[in-house]
Amino acid sequence: MESPDIMSSNVNITDSNESGNMQHHKSEDFSDLRDHVIANFQKPNLPNINVPEKIIICLDICYDNQNSLYRLGDGTTFTPVNMLKRILDFFLYSKHAINKRTEFALLVLKDSEPCWLQNFTNNLKDIISVIDYLNAEESTSEIFDFEKIFQILKQEIQIPEYCQADCILPPPYVVRMIVLYGRSNCVPQIPQDDPYFIYLKKQFYFYTDILLAHEEDCALYKCEEIYDALQDLDNGYSYVYEVSRNATKIHDCVAKLLAHPLQRPLQKNTDYTFGCRY
């Protein structure tokens, strides 16, 4: 006769525990959300507007291993440089569809020298035709000096000036450099004392994003050293990704780079899940 009461008591205890766990999870979720909001308030007070972008595609055309391949689900294979070209096509067409005033320039990283190949243009045919005719080169250098890139940028770009008194007014455009680095044995050298690099890191309307596409067996290469070196380009507002020979992941990474610098959160606060969390 007492069994029903015992069962009822157990159910109540369980419900109470579940309720406590739910409250605990909600408290954790609220705490995470609060931290994200505070972190974003720490960003400079910039207008959250989709102003035109001037995007510098900084494309590495060198490879370490000529037998290294990306493989799609249907069995199609791509060399590392051809895969970077493929995802660039996707990126260029997608950004152009979002805002047709977006302009693109092309800066190519050869074995030891950068080369400015295409001035800013919003004509996709112009820049895609230049990219299509690029040939891959074998990497023979152990270091790549980014100071040469900064020298080119100093000559080729103008960055809108940020004025705190007028911070709510949108700039005419923002400038973003996207570094697509494909080498696994050539370590970038980022001169922290370079005057123009110091200037770039202080500009609120200049951004640098990074996608490192490296070889799979990092024990045989300098992948970690290269990744750590590229982090020096980050002024706190960059998006930085790394991927090995995974065709799906490299497409996912370049899709995340479509976000406008003035409208995206800090990378550590991004959330790409769908649906309600509760």
From TrEMBL:
GO cellular component: BRCA1-A complex; BRISC complex; nuclear body
UniProt-listed PANTHER family: BRISC AND BRCA1-A COMPLEX MEMBER 1
Protein name listed in UniProt: BRISC and BRCA1-A complex member 1
Organism in which the protein naturally occurs: Parnassius mnemosyne
Keyword presence, Nucleus: yes
Biased composition (Polar residues): 1-22
GO biological process: double-strand break repair; mitotic G2 DNA damage checkpoint signaling; positive regulation of DNA repair
Subcellular location: Nucleus
